[in-house]
Amino acid sequence: MLASLFLIGASLTTPQMSAQAASQTIVEDSEDGMARAVNRMVGGIVSYARWPDESPDAARVMCVIGTPRLTNRMAPDVPGAGSVLVRRLSAATVTGRSDCDILFLGRMAMADRRQLIAWVRGRPILTITDDDAACIYGAMFCLSNRAASLSFSVNLDAIGRGPLRIDPRVLSIGRSAGGPT
After folding, report:
1. Of 84, 85, 166, 174, which is most buried, counting CB atoms within 10 Å of its CB?
2. What predicted TM-score, i.e. pTM, was given to this entire model?
3. Would you say residue 181 lies in a domain?
4. What is the pLDDT of residues 57-77, one digit of tens each?
5. Which SS3 state, helix, strand or coil, does residue 92 take?
6. Do 86 and 125 contact (CB within 8 A), yes or no?
């Protein structure tokens, strides 16, 4: 599993620390290439998350809120046996549901983002965004596209607020790829 994420970059974000690491080069400069890269990266991130009630082959539900910046074709490619069902919802409808295991936050009003991040605290919900490269608005993982490469930041503070467990190997990807930490 670690090998599938080896080329994906990571940076860690805590209140006191931010470090940039390696990134995944997007081979094709097309929407198809970007969609594949985003879906591999999101699937890899999901594969490193553990939910409190998890069975090994549990299908997860990813609720996409707002408009993703990197691709509108969300279909996470989870290594191994896991799978992710994708639903598009409005910010207003998400908080009334209990079936979202993952929130993917695209472009949206800041008030909606704050409400969703506050609602997620203490819940076993993985949060990923492509609309906050610096990872300062509360998502756990933040995708970034710079110079034809896709990378992500990790917000340790956001991860620490909930019952999800993130395999620490995802935090060492940057070190393994030779990037600073």
Report:
1. 174
2. 0.79
3. no
4. 678 999 999 999 999 899 998
5. helix
6. no
